[in-house]
Design a protein that fits this description.
heterodimer; A: alpha/beta; Rossmann fold; two-stranded antiparallel ribbon; 8 helices; B: alpha/beta; 2 domains; 18 strands
């Protein structure tokens, strides 16, 4: 069985930042493995550990810088990685869901996985659509917002038996035929930390570079129908009454507020 | 090609709120495009749903009677057929968990540009949408020149449509290709049960990422003991396994409406706020003065919880660990 895990390197914004044009200035950004993808990687590695012959391959659309993030996924147990990059992607301001799905579809066609695991969304642009659009693009089944996966059934019965986390503390139980794309919700497992041994091993694992041309796509695959034309900090509308002073003074005022509200007795 | 087609959402026999918010957003767009607002409802008791969806501003309701509960394969096929029939400029969908399960697929299948999780949508010859990025730290304006468009809207951003409309209600002639239905919903499970019902509590002390380590939980438990509050949390605490799922407040957890909600180290992401904005009094303790939780707080404490909470425990005669 082959599991393909989509891994995105996301930009995290520091507490104080400045926007220049339609971007946040690079100096205020830190790059990391997308939180949802971390859970997807873990789910893939757990399948690999539970099965006899499970290969876990990660795929990332990203510049050379993202290799650090990819190595992290490899250190956690993925077998090898693919990194798609291209001058046309370098020039694109935004990759919309359609563009990402088309590019990843090229990789799915190359690799022919049984299962694709993708994070529910990326922490930065948060479109939350790539996995399901990819499923449609390649004709796979899918399930979105999965917070439980029956690993035995996946490995032996060719069906993904999942829980989908709906709103309000309700889960939907769904069976989907393989091949399938599952978008993985946080909390589905406990992502491991990479061990020193894993980190060492990751250094010798393959990160195969691929261009759009390698995937049988032309430069138009990087075209996005969506344009970001403005970016700004939302106006804060706080009319909170702030409790000022030292921590002790703040606590004293807070105690008075709670007592006045009648939720804490004398 | 100037109409708007909105797809309603229901679960276990009830239309969900976002359905009526889609009507409001859809009516605004239809006014801008100069077209009609069509609302579709797929599966379940479609007659009852159609009657309820016939609110002011709806021109047509299309019912698809096939199946009971949401199934994404059925929804994608039905939406594709409806799209061909109505030929709209906008396909308007909910950015709910089920929306996430079919909106990207139908947009991709129809080759429509897809804008998800919109908090504002305008049409002036082209589409202009507002959406957040970087965990609500910034808002962006997204423009898409050429339609038709697929847009999913965030719940709770538009008011629910009210009143009674005079829509033309009709059964849409649709039979799915059952061979293409390769997913099967086998049931539901309530996961938020357990020993404590946080939605019944009068005073909730709720913790978030700000507590940093599981080892810091006893500090908050000491506050809970000293004040007689009930302990709840935001999602990351439950994801980390530090508290059970029945303590989680927010979209995927419980909706709570206590007299007082004391949010400690919670930034106030939209998914969390959805579950607690109905609290009578909201008090927030956070080191970041720009944290969105302060936008909805009645009282704010900008400070380090590791200084403020021990002092607060002492105020109530307790002892910090």
């Amino acid at each position: 069985m082959k599991v393909l895990v989509t891994v995105k390197e996301v930009a995290e914004v520091e507490e104080d930042f400045e926007i220049s044009g339609t971007e946040i200035d690079e100096t205020y950004l830190d790059y990391d493995l997308n939180e949802w993808d971390d859970y997807a990687v873990e789910e893939g590695v757990q399948l690999q550990e539970a099965g006899d012959d499970v290969e876990v391959v990660t795929v990332t659309i990203g510049p050379e810088r993202s290799e650090e993030t990819i190595r992290m996924a490899l250190a956690k147990g993925a077998d090898r990685a693919i990194r798609v990059w291209d001058d046309a992607l370098e020039d694109a301001d935004l990759l919309d869901v359609e563009a990402k799905a088309k590019i990843l579809a090229g990789v799915v066609e190359e690799e022919d996985p049984d299962l694709v695991l993708s994070g529910v969304q990326a922490a930065d642009d948060a479109f939350g659509g790539t996995g399901v659009a990819l499923a449609d693009e390649v004709g796979f089944e899918w399930a979105a917002v999965v917070n439980q996966l029956d690993s035995e059934k996946v490995l032996s019965e060719n069906v993904a038996s999942v829980h989908r986390e709906l709103e309000g503390g309700v889960e939907e139980l769904t069976d989907v035929d393989l091949p399938a794309v599952l978008t993985i919700q946080t909390g589905i497992n406990e992502p491991r930390y990479a061990s020193l041994r894993g980190i060492r091993q990751a250094q010798s694992k393959e990160i195969a570079p691929m261009t759009l041309d390698d995937l049988g796509l032309d430069e138009s695959a990087a075209d996005s129908a969506l344009d970001i034309t403005d970016m700004y900090e939302p106006e804060t509308e706080s009319d909170a009454q702030y409790l000022e002073g030292s921590a002790d003074e703040q606590a004293s005022q807070l105690a008075d507020v709670l007592t006045d509200l009648g939720v804490v007795g004398e | 090609m100037s109409d708007v087609l909105a797809v309603a959402e229901h679960r276990r026999g009830e239309l969900r709120d976002v359905s009526f918010e889609l009507v409001t957003a859809g009516r605004d767009l239809a006014d801008a495009t100069g077209g009609d607002l069509h609302v579709a409802v797929v599966s379940g008791d479609t007659d009852e749903f159609a009657e309820k969806l016939n609110r002011e501003g709806v021109d047509a309701v299309h019912t698809v009677s096939y199946g009971e509960e949401f199934n994404h394969d059925v929804y994608v096929q039905a939406a594709e057929a409806l799209f061909a029939d109505v030929d709209p400029e906008f396909l308007l969908l909910p950015n709910s968990v089920n929306g996430l399960d079919y909106a990207p697929a139908i947009a991709n299948k129809l080759g429509l540009p897809y804008v998800s999780d919109a908090v504002d949508v305008e049409f002036d010859g082209g589409l202009t949408a507002t959406r957040e990025m970087y965990g609500s730290k910034v808002e962006t304006t997204i423009e898409v020149a050429e339609g038709p468009y697929a847009v999913s809207i965030r719940g709770g951003e538009w008011p629910a449509a009210e009143g009674v409309g005079d829509a033309d209600v009709s059964e849409f002639d649709f039979t799915p290709d059952e061979d293409a239905i390769r997913s099967n919903v086998t049931g539901f499970e309530e996961v938020a049960g357990g020993d404590v019902d946080i939605s019944e509590a009068e005073f909730l002390v709720s913790i978030g990422r700000g507590i940093e380590e599981e080892e810091n939980l006893p500090l908050i438990e000491a506050l809970v003991d000293a004040t007689g509050a009930t302990l709840s949390s935001s999602r990351p605490i439950v994801d980390n396994g530090w508290l059970p799922k029945n303590r989680q407040v927010g979209q995927s957890g419980k909706t709570v409406t206590p007299k007082v909600y004391l949010a400690i180290g919670i930034s106030g992401a939209v998914q969390h706020v959805a579950g607690m904005k109905g609290a009578e009094t909201i008090i927030a303790v956070n080191t970041d003065p720009d944290a969105p939780i302060f936008d909805i707080a009645d009282y704010g404490v900008v400070g380090d919880l590791f200084d403020v909470v021990p002092a607060l425990i002492e105020e109530f005669g307790g002892e910090a660990p």
